[in-house]
Amino acid sequence: MRWLRRHLVVIAGTLALVYLLLPNVVVLVFSFNDPAGRYNYTWQSFSTDAWSDPCGVAGMCDSVGLSLRIALTATVAATVIGTLAAFALARHRFRGRAAGNSLIFLPMAMPEVVMAASLGTLFLNMRIEFGVTTILIAHIMFCLSFVVVAVKARVASMDPKLEEAARDLYAGPLQTFLRVTLPLAAPGIAAGAMLSFAISLDDFIITQFNAGPSTVTFPMYVWGASQRGIPVQVNVIGTAMFVAALALVVAGQVVGARRRSRA
Fold this sequence. Notes:
The protein is mainly alpha-helical. It has a domain at 59-230: MetI-like fold (Orthogonal Bundle). Helix content is 76%, strand content 0%. The longest helix is centred in the N-terminal third of the chain and has 32 residues, at 60-91. The chain starts with a helix and ends with a helix.
């Protein structure tokens, strides 16, 4: 019992991590399955056919490419706008600042179906044709809040004395920002960008309400395929995305550990 009390936090954390990663392990295992019918729900036999031809299902890779393009574009736009907004809210005093801070949290707190229906109504009233453009506008809007929150938290924790020291050493405003401020805020900006990319890539509700009849992203494709049987290639794409995200996290940890060791 003494050993259990001493390691209780570690055990609880490990169990929570296993619980979170278990669905990804199931997706990985069933990406090597050879289903007998249309449904990939029960294990039949080991096969690498889906991995050798991940685009063997018509329209799936096109939807993946569309989702990646939308996610990248929305991430870049939301990161730039959100970073500027976060610096303005954290560093400057102006009329409406308190209201702006409150409004930033609305897209995060509001149910997605409400936001999706509101945006769809707005586009209809403005007679904007549904398609990639409307999806991008919607994704940038709800990704913006996450970027502002992440960057603002980082900016608030930065020591202003470092920027004052740079100015004392005759650095100009632009040089101070590029050499001191931006590197210090980079972890928050990167966190906001990664969060925006992940949210945009797997969004379904807002995309479904604001997509045109011929615009099919990967989440929409999976939802449509689930009604007639999800192909094994969907598990392949999901596993590839999970491995890529895991590699990115590990690389970030390795780079951070090296920087800390050098410091």
